Each structure stands twice: as C-alpha cells, then as structure tokens.
Amino acid sequence: MNITDLFNIANLFVLPFWAVMILLPNWKVTRKVMESYLPFVVLAAAYVYLFVSSITPENAAALSNPQLADIAKFFADEKAAATGWIHFLVMDLFVGRWIYWEGQKTGVWTIHSLALCLFAGPMGVLSHIFTAWIFKAFSKGESVTVEEKAAVN
User: Fold this and answer.
1) pLDDT of 28-56, one tens digit each?
2) What is the spatial distance between Cα 111 and Cα 19, in angstroms, rounded to a whole number?
C-alpha cells in the first residue's frame, strides 16, 4: 500500500465515528462503538508504521531538538506529512470521543463542539469547555445525564 492510499483510507476511516457522535449521539450503537478503543489502535498502528518508516538519522536529529525550519523541512516529505496528518486524526478523534462522553455524562450539548473538533481540534475543545461552563452557570448544578432523561421519558 502506498502513502497516498494509507492517507486516504485513514481520512475515510474516521468519518463514521464522527458521523455517529454528531448525528446520532444517543443511539445505543453509537455508545457501544464509542466505548471501544479499537479505532485508536487501528489509527495508531498506521501512525507507528509511518513514523518508523519516515525516520532517518537527519529527521531524528531534527525532531530531537526541534527548530521551526527543520520541522518545516521534515513535513515537506509526503511520508512525514501523512504521519503528521494521521497524528491529527488520532488525537482529534480521541478528544472528540472525550467531548462526546462528557456530553453523555452531563447532558451538555456537544454537536457544535464535535463538529469544530473534527475540523479544528483545539477549537472544538475550547468550544466544549465554554459550553460546559455556560451550561453549568445556567443549570445551577441541576445536571441530568442523557440516560436519566431517557429513564424519565
């Protein structure tokens, strides 16, 4: 498998997880799927493969004492860029999963934060933190989980 194929497969691989968290957050299947660490194992394995195969003595030296110019040169290589991109995919999905579970536990609305996290991870984290603060300020500690709401209905 070439680098382009692995890059494209990784991009497509994450989409169903994001889709169910955003579009079907309270579906039993979504909860079951998001309990699993398997998606992260698959993506992390792709990352490790690319990382190990992209390290050269020059790259290792540049990464051990990072300077912006050296990092820019490192990521100019397709394999290194794919490695970095899969790093983003793994970490953004992991953070998105955390946001999803926080929303499930607290009842805080997460759709907007998950969408932001999908496209710009740190912005999604900030969005969720601010949303949780606002929710807490207006709910005055009367947080109800999604499961508790479902039990009442």
Assistant:
1) 999 999 999 999 999 999 999 999 988 88
2) 10
Other beta carbons within 10 angstroms of residue 121's beta carbon come to 18
Identify the band that residue 58 occupies on the pLDDT scale cut at 50, 70 and 90. confident
Taking the C-alpha atoms of residue 73 and residue 77, their distance in angstroms, rounded to an integer, is 7
Place of tokens 């309270």: 26
d(CA 103, CA 84) in angstroms, rounded, equals 28
d(C-alpha 24, C-alpha 27), whole Å: 6
User: What is residue 113's three-state secondary structure?
Assistant: helix
Task: Check residue 147 and give its pLDDT.
Answer: 58
Q: Give the number of other CB atoms < 10 A from CB of residue 97.
A: 22
